Amino acid sequence: MGPDMAAELARHLLMEAMLLSAPLLLAGAAISLLLGLLQTLTGVQEQTITTVPRLLIVFGAAIVAIPWFLHRAVFYTVQMWSDFNRYLG
User: How is residue 60 annotated by DSSP?
Assistant: First the structure.
């Protein structure tokens, strides 16, 4: 395996990791934005008011997205194993 092939493999791996983490990151960012706006409007500056809902929303998004995560990860793994001979030389 040459440097070009290793770079391509790393690029695909990082792209897949980004796609798998995006739903949870977007859910966390959206709830943080809404809670920050709510805290600014009400003047309540308590840390637990933002931490607990953020954890619950991200956990709920993870539970809902588990089938998609698994499908995506299994597809990527099968694709890598089917092209394995290409990386050996």
Answer: H
Structural tokens at position 50:
């933002």
∠ CA 52-54-55, rounded to 5°: 65
Cβ atoms 1, 88 nearer than 8 A = yes
Q: Tokens 């990791």 correspond to what residue? A: 17
Rounded to two decimals, the pTM is 0.76
C-alpha–C-alpha distance, residues 61 and 4, integer Å: 36
Please, are residues 54 and 32 in contact by the beta-carbon 8 Å criterion? yes
Burial 38-72 (b: 16+ CB within 10 A, else e): eeeeeeeeeeeebeeebeebbeebeeebeeeeeee
> 5-29 pLDDT, tens per residue?
888 888 999 999 999 999 999 999 9
For residue 2, report the phi and psi dihedrals to the nearest 5 degrees. Answer: -90, 175
**Consecutive H or E run containing 4:** helix 3-42
